[in-house]
Structure formats: structure tokens, C-alpha cells
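Annex B. Sample input.
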Amino acid sequence: MRLNLVVIAIMFAGIIFLAIRAEQRVYDNKGRLGVRQEGDAVVFVWKSAVDVPMARRFEEAFDEWRYDGARIIIDLHSPGGALREGEEVIQVINYMKRTHRVDTRVRAGRSCLSMCVPIFLQGETRQAAPSSRWMFHEPTARDFFTGEEVNEPAFERRHATARFVERYFVNSDMDPAWREELVAEWKGKDLWKSGRELAAEGSGVVTVLK
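Annex B, continued. Sample output.
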């Protein structure tokens, strides 16, 4: 009996050790944030998915660089990612805004897809290159363990979409009429735009085309 308890304890210890190591690898090897000085601003360059540990990286970088400039530029190139992590990133950006001006940009040849867009919308000045690529779609539920998309019932998808739009688009500078057209058009598909199109259509997503 005692031997069995010892074996079980060792097994649990091993599982905990592996879980800790796995989490450590996530934080060590994914989502490296580049930070540099650019004139009077500090630039955070994120070229990865919206996923753990993005919010932590932003928070750590802000704590380290907050006294090196009164303005933060968030330079994005992202395929999108997790709603929850995106919300935490936005919370960190709101914390930055208490003391700093925060601008966002997507440069030539780069992309801002899916959950990247709500993060981009947090900028006071939102700069995009004409050739930048953008993608909008309804929020999708994913299995926690496999990451695969879950086929939700229609009413749940409608509810999730309404919440997403209210939280990230209604409470932003996005043009209301353009937003309504977007929501009517994106059902069941991905909508692709260029930075030039977003500016030309008066979307309110982009304030500076450069």
C-alpha cells in the first residue's frame, strides 16, 4: 500500500514537472517582442500570433521602457489568435494609456488578421501601408486542448459575434456604417482588405496611410 502511494506521488510529481517545463518553453520560445527607440517614441514590434505570452511581454517591456519616451508605437505583423489573450493585451495597452500616448501601425508587406485588428484599433494614430493585408471574420470557438475550431450552434455563434462586435468595434473609431456592412458581409467567410482599401472606404480603421 505504502509503495503504491509512493509510486503515485512520483507520477504526480513527474506530471507537474512536465507541465511546468511545457509552460516555461511557451514563455521562453514563443512571441519574442522586439523593442527599440525611434525618435521620441519606444517601438514594440510584435511579429507573432495573438497568443500567450503576448500580454506578459508587453507588460514587461512597458515596465522596462516606460521612462524612455512619452509615446509607444505598437508595430504589428500578426495572423491573429486567441480572443482571451487579445483581451489581456488590450488591458495592458489601456494601462499604458494612463501615462503614454499609444499609436499602432502595420508596415508594407505585413498583415493584421483577425484578433490583431482589435489590438490595432487601440492606437490613437493608426498607420497602415497601402500594401498591408487585413482580414476580418466572425469569432470562432476552438477546443482548449486541440486548438481545432468547434462547430457551435447558430444561436451561440450569433451571440458570440454580437459580443465581439460590441466590445471591439462599436467601442472604437470604426465607422458605424462601414461596420454594419462588414458584419452583414462576413458571415461564414473571411474578408480580406488592403490598407489602401480600408482608407479609401472610410472604414475608420486606418487614420494614416503611409
